[in-house]
Amino acid sequence: MIKAIHYIAILILFLTFSNFVSSQSIVEQYPVFKSGERITYSAVYNWGFIWINAGEVEFKVTKTKYKGNDAYHFNSFGTSLPSYDWLFKVRDYFQSYARIEDLAPLFFDRNTYEGGFSVHNQFTFNYKDSLIYSSTQNSDKPYTEDTLRMEKNIYDVISGVYYIRNLDFDKYQVNDTIPVRMIIDNEIFDLYIRYLGKEVLKTHDKRKFNTIKFSALLIEGTIFSGGEDLFVWVSDDLNRIPILVEAKILIGSVKATLTGTEHLKFPLSSEIISQ
């Protein structure tokens, strides 16, 4: 259950876009974030009448250099709460370096520990030869190296989070589907998200936001049953930050709710303040 927490907050998105994306689909304020931005979430597991505060997730972005060129460095940390570690300990770390101009990924690293199961994946993106060099290892499989043919407009799960925030949803109608292409665990998937319109959202801590809502098609596996069982509410302001991410899993559901922001590029004007 806690295993899904970081994926929920990350799959935000969890999303990346294929070659349908044109420059007209990107917001004029690109990028909608700045170096130093930090966003935090609490993760809650629900099963019937049982609610468990299970973990915390953090996203950070800095402007840096990658192999001598300007780049963004995206970091995401996910951890179970100490009181929950005895049941299912999680220590997840994801990082991605991406190009400044279009957020195309340059290097991705996943190093995760979830209930005794470890995964370490790295992807290096070679745009000159359209190749992805990968190294993968987990508790069930030994270290292996591979080379994949790079598909157009592909993102890893972290650079995809920041890319989707720059998408101009005003270009779409309710129920429009938007193609998604991402690399996960050494496989390339063509998925989609569905734009569901705008909604006033009230979080469990009684904050209210004007939001943009969409769902996402998930990959069937050990956590998810597949289908459009992931829902994301993004702030309807210039920041486009996820306020709430909710997903059904094989047993129960999980939610990741915004708890804190630092160094946003724009005011969080989507929040409705009661007078």
Task: Characterise this structure.
- The chain has one domain (3-262).
- It is globular.
- The longest helix has 8 residues, at 3-10.
- It is mainly β and 275 residues long.
- The protein has helices spanning 3-10, 157-164, and strands at 38-47, 50-66, 69-80, 90-99, 105-114, 117-126, 131-138, 144-149, 177-184, 187-202, 208-218, 227-235, 242-248, 253-262, 271-272.
- It has a 15-stranded antiparallel β-sheet that branches.
- 6% of the residues lie in helices and 53% in strands.
Estimate the mean pLDDT confidence. 82
Main sheet: strands, sense, barrel: 15 strands, antiparallel
Count of discrete alpha- or pi-helical segments spanning 4 or more residues: 2
Helix- and strand-based class? mainly beta
Oligomeric composition of the shown chains? single chain
Q: Which range does the strand content fall in?
A: over 45%
- Poorly predicted ranges: 1-24, 221-226
Give the radius of gyration. Answer: 18 Å
SSE run: HEEEEEEEEHEEEEEEE
| Inertia-based shape | globular
User: N- to C-terminal separation?
Assistant: 39 Å
Percent helix, as a range, is under 10%
Per DSSP E runs of 2 or more residues, the count of β-strands stands at: 15
Number of domains: 1
